[in-house]
Amino acid sequence: MKKIYWLGLLPCFAMAHEGDKNYGYSYFTFGLENVTYQEYYGGTQSKVTITNPVLNSGGLYYINDKFDFSIDALASFSPQSAQEDWKYYGQLMQTNKFEYLKTATNIQLHYKLTDEWRVIGGPALTYQTYTRYGMRNHNGFTNKAFYGTWEETSTDIFVDLGVAYDNGLLFSDKKWKVSGRAVLGLPIYSVTQNTKFEDNTFNDFGMRVSIEGTISYEVMKGLHLGWYAMLGYEKRFETDKQAVLVETCITMVDGVCTERETKNGYATLPEADTHTFSTGLQALWSF
């Protein structure tokens, strides 16, 4: 006979055999996420590195002898600011302050090849916010289209596929537990908006890869404490140009626009690379 266990912190339920009541676990991670973000367009290139605190929670749950599923929810918070540098063929042309926030939810079905090795796949939803302000021009360059504060938001739905190593147990004769996964993701929906072009939506495409792992030690029955680390890379390709209506600055004094005009133009979402390293302390439990 099967029993249903409702998980209060997650909008789902797991079905477990009576003999497998100790299978599966939940976890919570507190750590730091270091992100390097770069954009490229012609001879113009930007680069910024920023570190934010991050929370990550979720768990692994039993379906049957061949399948498990997992849910992971991540959110960065209390955004820090860093300086973003813009260069034109290597010469500094602009600097500005940069803030970055990310939330993500990953739902994966696990097909168990062995007790430890499994093929995983499923949807992932991400929402990213890039905020820029405090722009300063350098070396005679003047950017009259971007000034003040502007924000870019990206909403993505990825389909992930990968491999994982996890025996699904916290109760065993071994005190140490090791788990990990490697994932490739492709977007099926990806939309970016920018407050400078409020009437426009940019549909972009790219890919992402990540590898992560956890090593933990049993401090009491059903409770492990450990260390988590993740390396990730995301690629966004340049989008097609769109006609836009943009407000430009005619007269700027010390980075403050004192006279403006509105004109027609074209805009594109440039090619971009995002490199991520996340690490932190993790608690895993099954009670």
UniProtKB/TrEMBL annotation:
Top-rank taxon: Bacteria
The protein, known as: Uncharacterized protein
Lineage: Bacteria, Pseudomonadati, Pseudomonadota, Gammaproteobacteria, Vibrionales
